[in-house]
Write a structure and sequence with these properties.
Strand content: 35-45%
Helix content: under 10%
Oligomer: single chain
Order of helices and strands: HEEEEEEEEEEEEEEE
């Protein structure tokens, strides 16, 4: 039996090779993008020293300040998510229920920590937003003022952050109330911690959930 060799320059072989390359490219395109490793920091780094607190004057009156949570040493907030209850159309609205900071070391976004302090029970977490470069350095809080004895209080509705590289990032919150002026800036460092003022669940009465927030600044020069 005589074996026939294949001519590598034939149009058929060229076409088959082209189709094989296309198929390989399609398979690679379907592979998922590598996701960063994310770990919840909680209170384990709450003893980290900080240089200042960022506050705004328009936070509401209900609830109490809870516990601080801090990024690990040499990590700074580079992005955030918000927990928001959508418009309830005549039922009890709570709007912004939580803010989750995402911490990274330098410009490495492959290993991240999250911190959030105490959060409310209502709504869903948004997709994360990140500074294109740098870290979060200041913020604004959108707050609806107290609506009176028979009104529906929502208190905090949304948050905006400014990055050290200058872009402004706005949360996916609701539109009740007005934004405060910008807080002070972290200067040479960046935001490294969060503490929230929360009204606990009111068991069928008017819930306002998140009322105020303050952020810790850490100096990069100390690292």
């Amino acid at each position: 039996m005589r074996l026939t060799s294949v001519n590598m320059t034939t149009p058929l072989f060229t076409a088959l090779s082209f189709l094989a390359v296309l198929a390989l490219g399609s398979c690679l395109a379907l592979l998922p993008e590598e996701q960063p490793y994310v770990e919840r920091a909680g209170i384990q780094y709450s003893a980290r020293p900080y240089t200042s607190l960022l506050t705004v004057p328009n936070g509401e009156q209900f609830g109490n300040w809870t516990w601080p949570e801090m990024c690990p040493d040499k990590f700074f907030a580079v992005g955030f998510m918000v927990r928001v209850e959508s418009e309830q159309y005549g039922l009890d609205d709570t709007a912004l229920n939580g803010i989750r900071l995402i911490c990274a070391k330098d410009e490495d976004r492959s290993f991240l920590y999250t911190i959030e302090s105490h959060t409310g029970f209502f709504g869903d977490w948004s997709d994360p937003q990140y500074c294109p470069r740098g870290v979060l350095t200041s913020f604004q809080l959108r707050v609806e003022p107290h609506q009176g004895l028979f009104g529906d209080d929502t208190a905090a509705n949304n948050v905006r952050f400014r990055c050290s590289s200058n872009p402004t990032l706005a949360g996916a919150g609701l539109d009740y109330g007005e934004y405060s002026l910008w807080s002070q800036d972290c200067g040479d460092g960046g935001i490294c911690g969060i503490e929230t003022k929360m009204e606990e669940y009111q068991y069928g009465l008017d819930d306002s959930s998140l009322n105020d927030v303050r952020f810790h600044c850490c100096a990069k020069l100390q690292q």
